[in-house]
Amino acid sequence: MECKAIMKEYQILTDKKLHHYLDVKEDKNKTVIDAMRYSIFAGGKRLRPIVAIATYNLFKDNLEEVLPYACALEMIHTYSLIHDDLPAMDDDNYRRGKLTNHKVYGEGIAILAGDALLNYAFEIMISHARTQSNANVHLQAIEEIAKAAGMNGMIGGQVVDLESENKQVDKNTLNYIHYNKTAALIISAFKVGAIIAEATETDIAHMNSLGKNIGLAFQIQDDILDIIGDEKKLGKDIGSDVENNKSTYPSLYGLQTSIDEVKRLTTNVDKVLNIYGKRSRFLHDLSHYLVNREV
Amino acid sequence: MECKAIMKEYQILTDKKLHHYLDVKEDKNKTVIDAMRYSIFAGGKRLRPIVAIATYNLFKDNLEEVLPYACALEMIHTYSLIHDDLPAMDDDNYRRGKLTNHKVYGEGIAILAGDALLNYAFEIMISHARTQSNANVHLQAIEEIAKAAGMNGMIGGQVVDLESENKQVDKNTLNYIHYNKTAALIISAFKVGAIIAEATETDIAHMNSLGKNIGLAFQIQDDILDIIGDEKKLGKDIGSDVENNKSTYPSLYGLQTSIDEVKRLTTNVDKVLNIYGKRSRFLHDLSHYLVNREV
């Protein structure tokens, strides 16, 4: 219960800041700002922001400090979904139970709204960093996010995922997709909280380890839910991966092995969190929530 | 002649650095890196990098200092062309006489290659800024580029341009498109050179004025060339704006008024450059080259 209350608190903090950032003066560019808002406020659970706030809070209390990065992570995640849903990519009509961006605004605006969210994420982080006395700490955090989101991170994963459609892929390729498409940005969320809190290199390395294990478990669980989940709760078509003939962890290893792998990764997480004792309670509960969620 | 030799020198400097940045270790993401290289090395004239190097060189000599920003500007310009050429946008098959990115790699990869170039532009600038002792100067330059490229700059202009297809627009709307779609990033190139050279606020304001006048003149000239240019030299379909029923400066004001406006803007440029005397010789020649180019 407490875990959900804290998640809710962090969601509200994030949403308030996102509203602040997207409450911009509209000019003739109104359509793209509307399209950006549509997807940002389409019911995302703010998991990446919650992670960044949580790891920050493991070391420091002034949560306001990490919010620009929490919001930037959510904007980057949202842009990747907008582009991923396009006809040239996954061709999805619904996301979180609502029409996808291009179904509402058309493909051209959806592409530009995605571009604008990515660009704005950097604009926010850089404008914030300029006002800080410890600019180098902030540059380290921005670099972390930039690398995670780029061609050797999230975009790389999307490319290989796209090329792997309608064919069976090997274990290495599936790992590459999982690690980069989803885990990379989640790992950066874990690290960025610690970086902004000016935690030690050792602590940042621990957060990196947490992110890796949870990020991979999260993606495998996502594949599992695509098979056994509840269509209404998930807000997207169940079995769409099977229908698209996508290679997933369960399709390559079987369902039970996938469930066991999620357990193994979760055990790794617990080991790291034990180092931090009681103050890691929320991160512990959050990790189990992320990995064992039903939807 | 001297102007062209210096342009060539700056092009070579930029290309060498672009090769350095894109000579990355390939993994399973090879396709997207190939697609990024394809468009970056598709014969662009490096006008934005040349501008940034030129304004830097008005104040300082160590050109290497400005190259990360010169390359980032070219990557952002190139990503915008890749996305602009997509079927959902301008639907162009050729760019600079070569097949557009999506005609070679498919729409999905072209979208991701554009995303990756935008992301990499920021990655490059941020990683560079982290190594510098004057981080705040570098953050100022990055912020300048981020704002110019974003929803209140280039992307805003693209959105309004897209929405204005197949209809007549008023003068305000055309100005908004010209100012944002093309001029904004060119203005940022003029300013960034001066910022990185740690020029005074007054000098930066002068560069801003140069950028505004040249950026607008450049776009109007582009519209003029679409009517009277040489298809082979321009490397794209002449009259494509007319064919797409796009509102352009000449279509709203007539050809002669457009030519006169280019002259008026050029006079403004000369007034600013007179302040800098002989050392602004290259910028003077470059401005006239940009504005009066035949292709």
UniProtKB/TrEMBL annotation, chains A, B:
InterPro entries: Isoprenoid_synthase_dom_sf (IPR008949), Polyprenyl_synt (IPR000092), Polyprenyl_synt_CS (IPR033749), Prenyl_diphosphate_synthase (IPR053378). GO terms for cellular component: cytoplasm. NCBIfam families: FPPsyn (NF045485). Belongs to the FPP/GGPP synthase family. The lineage of its organism: Bacteria, Bacillati, Bacillota, Clostridia, Peptostreptococcales. It catalyses: isopentenyl diphosphate + (2E)-geranyl diphosphate = (2E,6E)-farnesyl diphosphate + diphosphate. It comes from the Bacteria. Keywords: Isoprene biosynthesis, Magnesium, Metal-binding, Transferase. The keyword Metal-binding applies. This is Farnesyl diphosphate synthase. Its cofactor is Mg(2+). GO terms for molecular function: (2E,6E)-farnesyl diphosphate synthase activity; metal ion binding. One of its GO terms (biological process) is terpenoid biosynthetic process. The keyword Magnesium applies. It comes from Alkaliphilus metalliredigens (strain QYMF). Its EC number is 2.5.1.10.
